[in-house]
Amino acid sequence: MTDDFNGGVQEGAGWHELSVADGRRQSTAVAYLHPAKRRPNLTVLTGALVRRLTFDGRRCTGVEYEWGGSVEQATADAEVIVCGGAVNSPQLLLLSGVGPVGHLREVGIDVVHHLPGVGENLHDHPLLGLVFEAQGAIAPGTANHGESSMSWRSDPSLPGPDMQFVFIHIPYHPPHLQAPPNGYTFGIVAVPQSRGWVRLASADPKAPPLINPNYFAEDDDVRRLLLGLRKARELNTATAFAEWGTREVLPGEHIQDEKGLRDFISRGTGTYFHGVPVVLGKLWSDIGCSQGKSRTRHGILGGG
Known about the structure:
Number of helices: 5
Distance between the termini: 25 Å
Radius of gyration: 23 Å
Number of strands: 18
Helix content: 10-25%
Order of helices and strands: EEEHEEEHEHEEEEEEEEHEHEE
């Protein structure tokens, strides 16, 4: 058992820490933004589309955005923080002329700064569901469909866990697969070796970007999900599940050979919505985001 997945010992099984108040899950906006929205130094514009970052030479000065049918600009006195997530942060940088010069010229964007890493190294936890049907009733979660999990090392020599097993109170699988409604799932997750990319389809800020998560480009990711399937099947034989009279439905107990399991992995794996870009080994070498002389932190490229 572990009491805190974010603490000193991540390995083990335990309960998730959840942002829940009065039985309702709290979004970041509800928990943090709404209590601060009346502050005089905060302006929130919803329904606005950021078109690009603005530059004075090679120094970032603000953003250009579309709102209420007009194009506006906001300038920064101190710094500009890019926090559009794993997809929209690199998309915005590329639209602004920051990225690999070949790709920028390909879509007709003037180059502000050649930075090859922008849009590269996209990775996301692959999530595979091992689904069981239960004869008895499954008690719903008190605040979430997945309230407990286990962090596990696929290789004991690893310095820390590289896999996660999430217990989910419902059948959880991609929409093209089917399972009986009275079921539960072991969500099998691996820290991926595979890397994908985000690129522009055009110079139009309203055009959706091209996204290639590139799942299973590295066979090691598949190999560890195979290990995870075996481990999850073993977990399901625990006496705690015996009273439910469980029957494996995805992929099914009859699939035991590696070829069949690999086929199920290719069909049954989806996103965990934890996309992250490792974009910059060295932050923008010559690009600042302050209008003054000081050069502070240039941006936060986040995901997950």
